[in-house]
Amino acid sequence: MKVFPPDFSQRLWQRTGSRLESPWGRPMFFTFNPFAAFGAFVSPAIMQGFVIVMAVFVLAGTLFDMLHKRSAAYFFENRRIVRARAQREVGGGEKMLLAAETMAEALVSGEFCDARRRIAHLLAMYGFIVYLVTTVILVFWYTTPNVPTPVILPILWHVGALLVLIGGCWFWFFIRVDVAAEGHSPWRVARADLFVVALLKNAALALLWSLLLSLHSDFAILALVLYLISALVLFGAVPWSKFSHMFYKPAAALQRRLEQARGSRMNLPAPANRPETFGSPRELPRHY
Known about the structure:
Blueprint: H1 8-16, H2 34-38, H3 44-68, H4 71-84, H5 92-107, H6 115-141, H7 152-175, H8 177-180, H9 194-214, H10 220-236, H11 245-262
């Protein structure tokens, strides 16, 4: 028994506003809105509720992570200690300038010295942002087949997921420390890899689900179930993954700049103006 009616695909393409066609006369799948197709069988409120629950998981998981690991307590205690060692005060204007510099560094992944690592991180980061934002827009505004979907939104959704795969797989198979420098198998997975693995699986299953749904395949149901499970793991396992690090790193980077501006430097000596090079030249580490 078929899951979809015989003329479902034609009616869906006409109603979602996705009219770009391939040279063979069939619509391209990356202009297809899978949430509108799913909305023909499931209430949009269910999809919207699922997205809201995922957002609550991220917020609750981050707060739990901060309390369980006492990272917030450590941050404020360390801030109090370095403030006591400050040699000068930083005004409000200078703080705003340092915050802007920190934001600019985060936007270009300036903390990475290696060009390959930076590019891979930028691809995955901006791909994830585009993928996440367009998911929210499609789910909350374009989840019914009778509402035309702007073609640019499904394109951005598919491109975002694809960028996540490109950047994430490049990092996973060629740049990771234990793969590039220590010679371990790229299939070796540890607990610290939970976020990256869940993100890659979620992006891959999103593309697979959309492709199968656009091809009117009954296997789209299986791909959807796996896609939802990967989303639950990605957003529900925040306390056990590195998902919350995307919130910690900008705060830590800003605090570091403030410490340097105040002259405290966490009780470390200032860098030498002309550092000496000792010993014979050696090969640079591949992962930095």
